[in-house]
Amino acid sequence: MKFRFALLLLSLAATAAQAQEDTVAETWTAKCKSCHGPDGKAQTQMGKKEAIQDLSLPSWQKSRTDAQIREVIAEGARDNKKMKAYKDKLTPQQIDALVAYVRAFQKG
Q: What whole-number distance in Å separates Cα of residue 101 and Cα of residue 8?
C-alpha cells in the first residue's frame, strides 16, 4: 500500500512538472515566438528585421544574468521598443519560467 501511495505521489509530481513545461511553452509561443522564434535564434521575419540577438549563443547566455533576463521580460528592452514590458501581463512565476526556458536554449 505504501508503495502504491509513493508511486501515486511521483506520478502526480511528474504530471505537475509536465503541465508547467507545457504552460511555459504555450506562453513562449503566444508572447515570444513571433520575434525570437521557436528556438530563441530569432530567425523570424521580425527577428531579422529588428536584428534580435540569438538567445541560444553561449556568448549571449554567459553575458546575461537571470536577473537581467527577468528585467527585460518584465520591463521591456531599453534599446528596442518593440520588446515590450510583460510585468502587467505575466505573473512573476511565468516570468521566472520564461527565464529558465531561455536558459534551456543553450543546451539545445
A: 28
Question: Is 95:31 a contact under the CB 8 Å cutoff?
Answer: no
The three three-digit cell numbers of residue 63, written as one number: 553575458
Residue 41 phi/psi, 5° resolution?
A: -85, -5
Span 65-77, pLDDT tens digits: 999 999 999 999 9
**Cell (9 digits) for 56:** 541560444
Question: Which helix (H) or strand (E) covers residue 31, if one does?
Answer: helix 2-31
| Residue indicated by cell numbers 527577428 | 47
Domain range list for the chain: 20-104
Taking 70 as the pLDDT cut, the residues of the chain under it are: 1-22, 107-108
| Fold classified for 20-104 | Cytochrome Bc1 Complex; Chain D, domain 2 (1.10.760)
> Which of the 8 DSSP states describes residue 38?
T
Q: In this structure, how many other beta carbons lie within 10 angstroms of the beta carbon of residue 67? A: 8
Instruction: Write the single-letter amino acid at 92.
Output: P
